[in-house]
Amino acid sequence: MLSGIKTRLSNVRTIKTLCESAENYALQDQQRQAGAEHFLLAAIDLPDNTARLAFREVGADAAGFRDAVGAQYGEALRSVGVNAGDHISGGLTPEPLQAAAGLYDAAPSGAEVMKELAANRNDHRPLLGAHVVAIVAAMEQGVAARALRCMGVDPAALKAAANKFSRASNRHTGPMGA
């Protein structure tokens, strides 16, 4: 029983970290709401290391996901005739937006990630970055899906790798090795 309570408290801390980090990534991208891509970036940063391990398992570098997301934003702007580089004065990156006051609100794709995390929770399993990776890898549409394709990552293989590391973590305690 005490173990279950500890796991639940740990999961609450992990969700708080995920949401705060995803929001920070969104604000850096000049967006007020975190999308699935921001939650995946936040999962990659989690100290459990399972998100990075899942990427490595499929031969991809998790650090490249940030650049792939940026490429998707740039492509979206170009598709409507806007060159993002033309609007950045002096080649400087704009300052991140400031967080809005009030309740936390994610973009629809980010809300879907959170909904799936809640629906798939097992009370006695720790929440890991690999769980987020598996959910995002299953998404067929959106910035995150396009970024993974841009990286040459097979979403089904990434999901399988993430599931492997989330199951393996049930047999270990603490952060998984690099």
Shape: globular
The end-to-end span amounts to 31 Å
Low-pLDDT regions:
none
Mean residue pLDDT: 85
The portion of residues forming beta strands comes to under 5%
Helix content: 55-70%
Write down how many β-strands occur, each being a DSSP E stretch of 2 or more residues.
0
Computed CA radius of gyration, to the nearest angstrom: 17 Å
Number of helices: 8
Note the run of SSEs as H and E: HHHHHHHH
- Quaternary status: single chain
Main beta sheet strand tally, sense and closure: none
Q: Structural class, from secondary structure content?
A: mainly alpha
Topology record:
Layout: H1 2-28, H2 36-45, H3 50-57, H4 64-79, H5 108-119, H6 129-137, H7 143-150, H8 155-169
Helix pairs in contact: 1-2, 2-5, 2-6, 2-7, 3-6, 3-8, 4-7, 6-8
